[in-house]
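Input chain follows. Return structure tokens only.
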Amino acid sequence: MTASLAALSARDLAAGLRSRRFSAREVLADHLARIDQLNPTVNAIVSLDVEGAQAAAADADRRCAAGEPLGPLHGLPVAYKDTHATAGLRTTYGSPLHAATVPDRNDEIVDRIERAGAIRVGKTNVPEFAAGSHTFNSVFGTTRNPWDTNRSAGGSSGGAAAALAARMLPIADGTDMGGSLRNPASFCNVVGLRPTPGRVPEPGTALGFSPLGVGGPMARSVDDLALLLSVVAGPHPDDPLSLSDDPGVLATVTPAELRGVRVAWAPTLGGRVPVERQVLDVLDPAVALFSDLGAEVDHACPDLDGADDAFRTMRAAQFDLLWSDLLAAHPEAFKDDLAWNIRQGQGLSGRDVSRAWAEISRLHRVMNAFFDTFDVLLAPVSQLAPFDADVLWPDHIDGTPLHTYLDWMASCYLISATGVPALSIPAGFTPGGLPVGLQIVTRARSEARLLAVAKAFEEATGYGQRSPGS
């Protein structure tokens, strides 16, 4: 498509809509044409609601013409992750048990995005119950990577990442427990942020005090990601971890001055994870760029001993609470890996869970101490490049065998267990043209600093400006 509005950034679209250089109906039409062209192959957007979106776009144009107040996301098309409840539009969780579920209310993150003026076009595909970092399910099938449709788009926010990369959406929401925002961002050459727990409130969840699962933004640039973050962040009285900071300060990002910044580079997280050589061959020069820009780079890693067991224990315990009864009633409706993970939780003792909570508390203190010495931690997002979309999960990394569907996600989930924010930024491409992301990690509640460092890297490289087929 030539001169497509769908190729513009979210900020440029928002500015053009406000100035009436183009209309919300025109923006929607361009994105719907892109969806019609590419989604049959990529399978990123599900439960498409064309009529509802067209009516909302017409109303957005009416409000703009009438001079009514406009939100920061006015007129921007969005499709919500299919684990976020959307009033009047089915939310399947990627499970056949919910294939016909139509909620009567929105989740809070959906309400915030819609109050900011975005236009709902549908949902983005997920793995079953968002479990796993490869997006496939028995309801809608497999989401494929726009860079190579034989490859995985990652997950669990894989539909969101693929839709962004293919220019079907300008912004997208997601969630992240073990890497579900960061991993697909890395696979699809977009930006994904796992915020500090509580930065993006999730009121009403059964596990409000757990720091593992968080909601967050995804976009094609740091600026667009910050725009969406400023909308979805902010306090909520019904989220016990909710942060009271003003989210408005996150909306505008100035690139950090990297001279003198203390950077730790942990290519294998202290020998704890295997990483493909082709991934490290991309990331090594990306890290060297920090030195070129004046940062002080050292090989160092925080003490993450215990993080693996703590994460796996808490994840399994939560899965047991959420889905054990459903698994008992409908064992045939669960994929084998998810059923295994739920049963892992069934075998835990109270002491096992308490020990995991204690370890997560220790890791929080470890990271605080680590960031007294370093300003930034760099690590791989994904331990391997996008893999064959038709396999369930990779069973080895450069000769190292993997035994469960979780093993290849450790470079993300070890960081999840520490409670700090982490971002995936496009960092280059393998010789075969597959995207690789760099994970940037900072102290808890320091998203503004994290975004500033990421933007400095983004401006110095320009990798995120590349699109599939360009």
